[in-house]
Amino acid sequence: MTPKSVCVYCASSQQARPEFLRAAHALGGEIAARGWTTVYGGGRSGLMGALADGALVGGGQVRGIIPEFMKALEWAHGGVSFLETVPDMHTRKRRMVECADAIVALPGGCGTLEELLEAITWKRLGIHGKPIVIANLAGFYDALVRQLAVCIEERMMHERHASMWSVVTRIEDVIPAILQAPAWGDDAIQFAKV
Ligand code: AMP
Questions:
Q1: 77 in ligand 1 pocket by Cβ < 6 Å?
Q2: For the CA of 44, the nearest atom of ligand 1
């Protein structure tokens, strides 16, 4: 299935290195160029803001999903196409996955890591079967990718579970990885529940 919307998890930090901010901006532009909607956490700072700006400059639609308390703190991006306000973080994360056909993780902090790992966990449980792409820019996710391999080596997951996610090292490889992601269908979900 060709996606119509892509959920991107990424850093809120303004202190991230410029190449990561540029990468987020570029990914927003690439999603827009496909005519797809960018779904993200609705913030205006850091990679989150750069992603949304890149998509908007590219003429794309952007859906930001932000908890009420963050909006009250004026953390929301003022220019997105749709800003969905939700009561809490758990609703936000559920809505971000619901609203997207594919999921991408750019570099980020603990919030991004949590979102990515939750998306992988939910896929393993059959809650969704959407492509998940880890953008391992400049080796940012080397340690996490290694840890996921350790989980498989130690039989916390089956090696088949590694097909739930793809790892790319360049921003231009993100969309091809979405399009080439192996299907995670009913057979895989049944397997995952065993
Ligand atoms: P992190 O990767 O730790 O920067 O977290 C990114 C995620 O944390 C976002 O998706 C939000 O859940 C939340 N977050 C933290 N700070 C902000 C902010 N200033 N604006 C919007 N979301 C934020």
A1: no
A2: 20
